[in-house]
Amino acid sequence: xxxxxxxxVNGKEYEREVEPRMLLVHFLREELGLTGTHIGCETTVCxxxxxxxxxxxxxSCTVLAVQxxxxxxxxxxxxASDGDLHPIQEGxxxxxxxxxxxxxxGMIMSVKQLLGDNPNPSRDEIRHAIEGNLCRCTGYQHxxxxxxxxxxxxxxx
Amino acid sequence: xxxxxxxxxxxxxxxxxxxxxxxxLITGTATYVDDVTRPGxxxxxxxxxxxxxxxxxxxxxxxxxxxxxxxxVYTGEDVKAVGPVPCAGSMPTLRVPHHxxxxxxxxxxxxxxxxxxxxxxxxxxxxxxxxxxxxxEPTECVADPEKALESDAVRVHPEYDDNVAFTFHAxxxxxxxxxxxxDVVVSERVTVPRLAPSPMETRGVxxxxxxxxxxLLVYSSTQIPHLLKTQLAVQLSLPENHVxxxxxxxxGGFGSKCNVWAEEALTCFAAMDLKQPIKWIENRxxxxxxxxxxxxxxxxxxMAASKDGTITALRFKILQDIGGHHQLLTPIIPxxxxxMIPGLYKIKNFTxxxxxxFTNLPPTDLYRGAGRPEATYVLERVxxxxxxxxxxxxAELRLKNFPAADEFPFETATGLSYDSGDYAKAFNIALENxxxxxxxxxxxxxxxxxxxxxxxISTYGEVCAFGPSPALPAGGWESAxxxxxxxxxxxxxxxxxxxxxxxxxxxxxxxxxxLGVPMEDVVVIHGDTGKVHWGVGTFGxxxxxxxxxxxxxxxxxxxxxxxxxxxxxxxxxxxxxQFNQGIFSSNEVxxxxxxxxxxLEAAVAQKLPPDTEPGLSATRFFEPPNFAxxxxxxxCTVEVDGDTGQVEILRYIAVDDIGNVINPMxxxxxxxxGVAQGLGPAFLEEVVFSEDGQLLTGTFMDYxxxxxxxxxxxESERTVTPSPVxxxxxxxxxxxxxxxxxxxxxxxxxxxxxxxxxEHIDIPMTPQKVWNLINERSQx
Lengths: 157, 780
Prior knowledge:
The structure holds two protein chains of two kinds. By secondary structure, chain A is an alpha+beta fold.
């Protein structure tokens, strides 16, 4: 039994028929081809699937596609604009805030939320903000530095 | 001909160059296995055993097969022609039970693959898995390696008369005599629980069979595409030149993807059977359950010493939990603990006895550090115990037993030749950085006020950068091809298969410096057996020392070939040709040739010397004459909350020596990540099974890997002792942090509680465990 849904993703409207049980992350990845959002645990713990729903981060592995009906979504694919990297992306690149890169899109979405709410976070606040995003590669230190670097660049902008 | 002498580039090697890999990774445009789609692609899912030990009486697939959207259901009977999952171990006593890709008749652990479904999407595939009806007759199981060794233990594999998978003995010197003559003897028994490697990307495979060309194309999230290609050809009885394996973007491995998995052959079999592309993606529960666990040891170490603190002998016993089957390197991994048991110390006598034991648990195999963290952990615990017994400063005791910087190469009792080092130098820097003496005073003062401060030392060494070939079952070399395109762009093809380490950047740095081209002009290709002709892979901290050296040698060949062409074109003698920053020149003529101009000449072949072949490319293999031996000192200070058992890391100091460094920023990242994977098991990580072999930690809620707030700020510094065993002077960095960190934390917590008479606490040191101990001691 399919349900019709209409969503706006990265500024573009999509209308699709989906099964009610389809997870939002599968909808984004497989129906819309937006594979930048990753699946790491399917249980809301790891944060690899973090996207923005109505301007707030959610873990798209525990949201149903039908729950996003009529709503506005942003994914990693929208973070750079016209080929220009976002300062958060620049921060991760400059400070080596990633290794295998699998957690990175979700991490960047959480950092986007953090810096939107708190433009000048302390190291402790940064660590707290990304507690819902697991990284197995970096030990987080370079991620913290990436966020500090991004915050500095964004304040100066 | 060039008229300019302006340098086209600057030196990249040794600089904090940002990574060439990153733009695709930070924009969501990278392609991991689950991002691969092929026309008509179907999805596979695997049914796994709910029992640790059972006979399979019957499997009924009718309900599953009749679900709309289901293309096929496979059981062990259907895939019995597929070859077994390989094990590369070869010790004389080794028992290798036949390891089928799907269980037939019996299951040996919870999670053992029993059947597979292929369906139109992953939801339907999972629905169908739930509809397969299996009748099991559960049998008695053994889920504890020590119990499995008891004489009346139930046998995991009834065809053997006990559960011993293999035994391995090694010795050097005269251990019995040294123990008899010792002034003091100390010992400790430690358990090192099973760990789930947990790369953020789980395993995944896409397989596609082209009926026309009879080529099997396999995308797999693997660290060893070339070895996998060979093994799949063998398992599926295909000519090896009809199999192509691509490791696309790989989301972390940590050793867990340095393996050959049942699900790889299974997905390929189904793709060939159905003649449709098939994707299988593992879920996290499967990953924690069946991806071969690291560690799984019970270790016992006895140490003999003289009164002055000279360590004279070791007796080492390892019990390695194998699980129900071997994977690729399962029996080999604990032998690395045996050869590294003397650590950084001059210990002339040792015996080691290793017993691998089958249990009704999933297989164990390599995980970051692989044998070396276990050895370092028990050794560094016992060194602290010795210091305690001798009432000697643990730092002084360590310094006393190091070989001096001029004693290298240093031959160990275990038969290794440590390549180079200055152990005291790195350790003294660490002691200075932590403010050793002032911390001890602070600790004493705090203790008098009831606060529990501790300092833990770990001085560690490791063996890495594998080969040489006799040490690796599949060859200890690596290959590289450098191809200069007609336009002067440079393509580097490496048989190493980096998966997050930054190999593309490091190799580009080497190429840019050697050829005087901008880094943007270099493309590094890896992880594709169709493009890179030879390879071994990335594991055992070998990407730079072995893979990088192969690239370096191929670059040298390019320059030598280029000089020959340039001499002919410039009409100068070969000896007079200089190549500097991308310009070929000679003091005999005024004309010069840029690298790009030379590349074009090499391709169009109008002016080449008569005795040369056209084109500018070179392929080299590098096999080292010996391993490399990184080392270092990690010091951790902690405060234990006596009311809650919570341990807070106050400072974390690391001084590592990994030889020469190509990119310090990438090296920092490797060390930080390594430390995180050493600290995780210190206070969080443990795969827990019930007595009947049921997995109790199947999600990241129960199997806790470190989060951002769990990790300390790592104060990292390096000494540089180049390795003499490869021309880059690199040793290897991937595993150093994981090996060095665990004992530093454990020794710190034990130190904090030592005045209560605490001598050891098993890992993971959860607050509950620490609090219970404090509580017991305060009451007694």
